[in-house]
Amino acid sequence: MQGNGFKIFAASAFILLSLYYLFPTFQHYLNEKDLASMDDAAAEQYRSEHFASLQSTREKALKLGLDLQGGMHVTLEVGVDALVRELAEGRRDEVFDSALLAARGQAETSRSSFVDLFIDEIERQQPGTRLSRYFRDTAEGISARSENSDVKAYLDAEASGALTRAMEIIRQRVDRFGVSEPSIQMQGNSRIVVELPGVDDPKRVRELLKGTARLDFRLMADPQELQSAALQVVQYFAELDEDLPTDTTASDSEPGTGPETGPDSTAVDTEAPEIAAASADSTADTTTTDTVITDVESLFTDIGGGESDSESNRFSEIFRLYPSDLPIFGLVAESDTAEVQRYLSDPAVQAMIPPGIILLYDVRTDQATEEGEPLHRLLGVRSRVEMTGDVLTDARTTFDPITNEPKVSLTMNSEGSSRWSQITGANVGKNVAIVLDNVVFTWPNIIERIPSGRTEISGVTRTEAEDVVTVLKSGALPAPVRIIEERTVGPSLGAKSIKAGTISVVAGLTLVLLFMIFYYRTAGLVADLALLLNLLFIFGILAAFGAVLTLPGIAGIVLTIGMAVDANVLIFERIREEMDTGKTLKASIDGGYKKAISAIADANITTFFVGVILYSFGVGPIQGFAVTLMAGILSSLFTAILVTRLVFDWFVADRRRSVAFG
Hints:
Layout: H1 5-37, H2 40-49, H3 51-60, E1 63-64, H4 66-69, E2 71-78, H5 80-87, H6 94-107, H7 114-125, H8 148-177, E3 183-187, E4 191-197, H9 202-210, E5 215-219, H10 223-238, E6 276-279, E7 284-285, H11 315-318, E8 319-320, E9 328-333, H12 337-344, H13 347-352, E10 357-361, E11 367-368, E12 374-382, E13 387-388, E14 392-399, E15 406-412, H14 414-426, E16 432-436, E17 439-442, E18 445-446, E19 454-458, H15 462-474, E20 481-489, H16 491-544, E21 548-549, H17 551-580, H18 585-617, H19 621-653
Parallel strand pairs: 1-21
Antiparallel strand pairs: 2-4, 2-20, 3-4, 5-13, 5-16, 6-19, 7-18, 8-9, 9-12, 10-12, 11-12, 14-15, 15-19, 16-17
């Protein structure tokens, strides 16, 4: 055994390191087993008392992919159409809007980029149109004299940049959310694929991903004008003798032209935080937004509520007037928001809304119908944005020193502080709305000027406060995104995958072990030892580098088992050839390893490069397969060449022992 000191040290070191990195996985398994045996109350208490240690163990444990532990697979589409519309600012006309709408429809089935479809549609509707009439950007050199090719290149660059920025912002949000080993990949010209293993709150993640984080500070409508407009609208629908059309173009309206509701809007989120605002200087009085209604039925006048026998007067059944001195247009039940949206999108109704006023929903749902369904306030907010979230320098979760209730503290830069001071100083006695993604999060009454540039959002749970901070700190998405595909893999399905994968590995390993013992006798036992160490090293490598084990990764492990044995077979056959020539056992082992090493290296190195290519260009399952394949190749080379040689040298050192090679 002389001269094998380094081999013994290397083998021992790798075994110890593998056990060290796999120990948290074993500990995490025992923790989960113990928690599963407890009742819900005891388990929750245990998690609360040992949160730090459980979190640390979970982070260090071998991570499982979406297909093994469950989670969410989400495909997001970046709204390039909204980006193009925003870049045109106020220079749009009928041709522009028509081309935009047509391109949006074509984009659902076409593989061409939205910019190409949009430009082609403009050329078709109005040949010879100069795109520079719609788009100007002096910073990028786009002026009224720019050629169409220059404008197209500008739009392509903006769309590509928006996709890249959206992907980075989503990555930051996911990282702040605390998902371990998420997969975020671009797909095509406008899509982002997100895989979040272990997620158990799909609704929360859904809202976190699609929120654009556009924070606005807006003044609110005059309460009397708003109440008068609401009454006119109710009377208008009450006097109609024919049904209103149920299909409108409301979904194509710009953000802010009406109440933002629908399947992709957070405006009607029943899980949305209940928020009241207050400045850091306690100069914003929010008690006016907490008016207690002792008799809800008194608010529902004969015009604005109650049952109606007329089908054309359906609006009076689902919309409730709210007589008050607050800028509240009315109340809408949770399930009726989409229908109210259609009614209010009527051009005649829009003409009744005071000029410069838009209707947005309040996240508060502190009132309810007789059946207990939440009622959302529909607020009148000025369309002019007084200040945007760009002035924020910090957003963090804080706690009230007296009540310990969580709050979101907002801090502004010098420009924002100055502007906030001007806004609050010039509008004392009025309400100001803080709007996030076209939803009014809070609308305090200003009682005096606020010079500090600080304000707070209170009335939220800790989780809700953390989500608001996450969205604001990650930054605003350059364009809105919508979820076009969502798949949720349940933990039970992941457990079945783990069971099936375990069976396949055990079955393959058992067959190989038995075959090697049967065919190569003593040498087969040595190969089996190397094979078991090979599996230990593979899982140790995955745990050490924080790699994710997926179902295709398990397939890679099964493949590696065969490849590892293949290396031993090459060595053993060369040793047998050497022994047939009459050489001693020691000389045959030396010759066998020397002659087999080149063939083993060639096969494994080329396969390793294939794994590198698969990992570089593949996504999701392909990368999972590539990771275990590369880890398996490295560990199999180590065990087949170094570990087995070390064992054979130990056999040869004692001449009384013999080694059978079949």
